[in-house]
Design a protein that fits this description.
- This protein is mainly alpha-helical.
- Among the domains are: about 300 residues, no CATH class; about 80 residues, Serine Threonine Protein Phosphatase 5, Tetratricopeptide repeat (Alpha Horseshoe).
- It is built from 27 helices and no strands.
- Helix 22 runs antiparallel to helix 23.
- The protein is elongated, with a radius of gyration of 27 Å.
- The chain starts with a helix and ends with a helix.
Length: about 600
C-alpha cells in the first residue's frame, strides 16, 4: 500500500470514531457545574466588546488566569448569538461550544497519533494507541464539559509544541526505541540527520515556544508540557542537551505560571489544612485512583468527593500508594522492560498529574483531589504503551491479539458514548454524581435549588444543609441556603447566610443582590441601594439587580431613575412579569405628574 495512504487511513479512523462517540454532544446544554459562571453569566462575555476582552487579559477570573480560553469563549459567544439571531445581551447557545470541544479533542488525538507515529514508525500501531487516547472514558469529562475547553486548548497547543520540538532533530540511527523494535522502518522520516540550518532550528524552536506560551495562557496546567517534551526527546534518542536551554526556559515559565496560580488560590480558601507529611499519602491515593480508572473505567463521575480528609480518615488512604509505586518501579525491576520504551509510558502518565496530586494544595481539593479531566494529557502514557504493544503484535501478525485490541478499543468507545450521556444537562449530571457519591455537595446543592423551585422546602433545606456539610466554604451553597430561608420569611437568618457567602466570595454578584434585597425587606433602603449597585459592578448583566433597583427607586418616588433601571433589566430579562408590571405603573405615574 502507498505509504502516504497507509499513514492517512488510521487518522481517518480516529476522526470517524470520535464523531461516532461524541457527535451527539453538540446538542447538549450548559451544565450548572461552572458553565453558567464561565459563559452565560460571565460579565466579560455579555456583551462581547473590546473593553471586556481587555478585562479578560488584564486580570484573572474565578481564581484562574486563562485569557486565551476566555477569548475563545468570546468568539464562540458571538458566533452562537449570530447563528441564533439574538442580541449581544442574550445568553449564547451551548451547541457551538460543544462542537468546538469535539473539534479540539479530534485535533489533540491526531497530534497524539503523529507523536506516536514518530516513535513506533508503524501507522496502524500509532493509530491504535491514539484511539485509546481518543476513546477512553476518562476523556469524556474533558470533551463533554464546556468549561473544560480550557484543558483541550492547553492540550492542543502543548502537544503541538512537543511535536515541533521532537521533530526538530532526527537522530543518527541510535534512537532508543529501536532497542525494542529493531526491524521497525520509518514511514515518516528516513532516519538520516535532518538538523537543518541554524535558522531553521531556531525558527522551529520559536514556533514551539509560541505554542507553549499559548498553552499556558489557555490553562496553567500546561506547565507540565516541558516534562512531556523531555521524556519524548529522551525516548526518541534526540540530544536533550541541544534543547537544554529551551526546555529550561519552558520549565521556568511553567514554574512561574504555577506560582501565580497558587497565589490566586491561597491555602486560606481551602477547607483542609493537609500537613506536609500527609500530602504524600494523598498524592499516592490520587495516583492509585487514576491507575484503577485507567484499567476499570466504570462508575465515573463529575465529582468523587475524594477530599484529603476522606482519604486520611480511612485506613486504606495510607496504603493505596503501594499500587502506583509498584507500577512505576516495575519497568526498572524487570530486565525486559528496563529501557526507555519501558519507562517512558509511566513517566508520561505521571508528569501531567504532578500539579494535581495534592503535593501542593489546590482549590478543587475542597470538592475532590481527583477528577477525570486531570488525566487527559496523562493518557499519552498509556497510548504510547498500547502503540508499542500493537507494533509488536502487528509485526508477528497475531490475529488473536489484534481481535482483543480491537474489541477493547470498541468497548472503551461504547463506554465513552454511555458516559457522555450524563453531561446532556444539569439534572442528568447531578443524578449520576449523587449515585456515585451520595454525599457529594455539588449534587446536593443542585437538587436543593431544584426542590426550592418546585416548593418542596423541606427537601430543599435537607439537600442544602448536606451540601453545606460537604463543603462549608462554598459561597454558592450559603447563598442558596439564604434564598431558601428568605422564601420561608426568615429574613434575619437569610441576611446572615448572604453575609457569610460574601465573606467567602466577595465577587459573587448574586449574593450581593440577595443581601441587598434582605436589607430592603428589613427597612434599610440606603444600604440596599448600595448592595444592588455593588452587584451590578461585579456583573452588569444581573437583571435581578437592575429590576430590584428600579423597584426601590419607584418606592422612593424617583420615577425617572426607576424607569431607566427597569428598562435595563428588561433588556436582559424581557420576560420578567414583575418588572413589566412595575414599569407600567411607574410610567402611568409619570404621565399623571405631567
Amino acid at each position: 500500500m502507498n505509504p502516504i495512504r497507509q499513514t492517512i487511513l488510521p487518522a481517518l479512523l480516529i476522526v470517524l470514531a470520535i464523531i461516532l462517540v461524541y457527535a451527539r454532544t453538540v446538542s447538549f446544554d450548559f451544565v450548572e457545574w461552572d458553565d453558567q459562571q464561565n459563559i452565560p453569566d460571565n460579565p466579560h462575555l455579555r456583551p462581547v466588546s473590546a473593553d471586556n476582552l481587555a478585562r479578560i487579559w488584564q486580570a484573572p477570573y474565578l481564581y484562574i488566569y486563562a485569557p486565551l480560553s476566555y477569548t475563545f469563549y468570546a468568539v464562540e459567544t458571538l458566533l452562537s448569538q449570530t447563528l441564533a439571531g439574538v442580541g449581544p445581551l442574550d445568553a449564547p447557545r451551548a451547541n457551538v461550544f460543544h462542537a468546538v470541544n469535539v473539534a479540539l479533542h479530534t485535533a489533540c488525538s491526531l497530534l497524539v497519533y503523529l507523536l506516536l507515529l514518530r516513535i513506533v514508525r508503524r501507522p496502524w500501531a500509532a493509530g491504535i494507541g491514539a484511539l485509546l487516547f481518543a476513546l477512553h472514558p476518562l476523556q469524556a469529562e474533558t470533551v463533554c464539559w464546556v468549561t473544560e475547553q480550557r484543558g483541550l486548548l492547553a492540550a492542543a497547543f502543548g502537544l503541538g509544541a512537543v511535536l515541533v520540538i521532537v521533530t526538530t532533530e532526527e537522530g543518527k540511527g541510535r534512537a532508543r526505541h529501536r532497542e525494542s523494535t529493531p526491524q521497525a522502518e520509518s514511514l515518516w522520516c528516513s532516519g538520516k540527520k535532518i538538523n537543518g540550518s541554524f535558522w531553521e532550528r531556531g525558527s522551529r524552536n520559536v514556533a514551539a515556544s509560541m505554542l507553549f506560551c499559548l498553552a499556558l495562557l489557555a490553562k496553567p496546567s500546561a506547565a507540565t508540557i516541558p516534562l512531556t517534551a523531555l521524556v519524548l526527546l529522551w525516548l526518541c534518542g534526540r540530544t536533550v542537551k541541544r534543547q537544554g536551554v529551551l526546555l529550561a526556559t519552558w520549565l521556568a515559565l511553567g514554574a512561574a505560571c504555577i506560582l501565580y496560580t497558587k497565589h490566586l488560590q491561597p491555602d486560606q480558601i481551602m477547607n483542609y489544612g493537609v500537613p506536609i507529611w500527609a500530602r504524600v499519602f494523598v498524592a499516592g491515593d490520587a495516583l492509585a485512583f487514576y491507575l484503577w480508572k485507567l484499567v476499570w473505567p466504570l462508575d465515573l463521575s463529575s465529582n468523587y468527593g475524594r477530599t484529603p480528609v476522606v482519604v486520611l480518615n480511612l485506613w486504606w488512604g495510607y496504603a493505596t500508594w503501594l499500587l502506583p509505586m509498584v507500577v512505576l518501579l516495575l519497568p526498572l525491576l524487570l530486565p525486559r522492560l528496563r529501557s526507555a520504551i519501558g519507562v517512558a509510558p509511566a513517566l508520561l502518565f505521571l508528569a501531567p498529574l504532578l500539579p494535581v496530586l495534592g503535593l501542593v494544595p489546590f482549590g478543587y481539593q475542597n470538592w475532590s483531589t481527583v477528577a477525570d479531566r486531570y488525566a487527559y494529557m496523562a493518557m499519552l502514557g498509556p497510548a504510547l504503551a498500547v502503540a508499542c504493544g500493537s507494533a509488536v503484535v502487528l509485526k508477528k501478525h497475531n490475529r488473536t491479539a489484534l481481535i482483543v485490541l480491537g474489541l477493547t478499543i470498541a468497548t472503551l468507545g461504547l463506554r465513552s458514548f454511555d458516559q457522555s450521556a450524563s453531561w446532556r444537562n444539569s439534572k442528568a449530571l447531578n443524578a449520576r454524581a449523587i449515585k456515585i457519591n451520595p454525599e457529594g455537595p455539588v449534587a446536593h446543592n443542585f437538587f436543593g435549588v431544584e426542590a426550592g423551585r418546585r416548593g418542596d422546602y423541606l427537601a430543599a433545606r435537607d439537600h442544602l444543609n448536606r451540601a453545606r456539610q460537604g463543603n462549608p466554604r462554598s459561597a454558592e451553597v450559603w447563598n442558596n441556603l439564604g434564598m431558601l430561608v428568605a422564601k420561608l420569611g426568615q429574613i434575619d437568618e437569610a441576611k446572615s447566610h448572604f453575609e457569610h457567602a460574601i465573606k467567602l466570595n466577595p465577587d459573587l454578584a448574586s449574593a450581593h443582590n440577595n443581601h441587598a434585597l434582605a436589607l430592603k425587606n428589613l427597612g434599610n433602603a440606603d444600604a440596599a441601594i448600595h448592595g444592588f449597585k455593588r452587584a451590578l459592578e461585579l456583573n452588569p448583566n444581573l437583571a435581578k439587580a437592575w429590576i430590584n433597583l428600579g423597584i426601590i427607586y419607584a418606592e422612593r418616588d424617583e420615577l425617572s431613575e426607576s424607569v431607566r433601571h427597569l428598562q435595563r433589566g428588561l433588556r436582559i430579562a424581557p420576560d420578567d412579569a414583575m418588572a413589566k408590571n412595575v414599569l407600567l405603573q411607574v410610567r402611568a405615574a409619570l404621565r399623571r405628574d405631567q
